[in-house]
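Hey, resending since the last one bounced:
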Amino acid sequence: GDVIHRMLTATQYIAPLMANFNPSYSRNSTVQYLDNGTVFVVQWDKVYLQGKEDMGSFTFQAALHSSGRIVFGYKEIPVPVLQISASQHPVKAGLSDAFMVLNPSPDVPESRRRTIYEYHRVELDTSRISSLSAVEFTPLPTCLQHQSCETCLSSELTFNCSWCHVLQR
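The structure tokens again:
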């Protein structure tokens, strides 16, 4: 989105593993991405925790598929994630989404008050993250998957769908 706010980065994320990583510690550390049109992959390769480089390097990735499927892959997790300190940076893994609304401030008419609404979060149990493991998120069916009025109206989804002829959805 076009809104940058510190709290949005705390509430809007796709994070296979969020921690105080320092990719500049080693020449061998990289953060790379690939987009082939059907999958977008980000890989953190041989990254170290800031100030805890003796713990070893971490290698993991997130793959976002055009189908909505998300896969987190963990190749190298040298220590249990629960041992990573959150004092300098939050330690979390999962998905979160939010949006921000700018409302006029009652005290100062020219200013706007920012309100952030986090509407969905999926937190992974970080005690289960280990080397050579993966987590797959599969999207639930929605009304938007229907391509015609007939399939929409005959759908067994519990969303009370209806077809919009203008949008063809």
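The chain has a mean pLDDT of 87.

Sorry for the duplicate.
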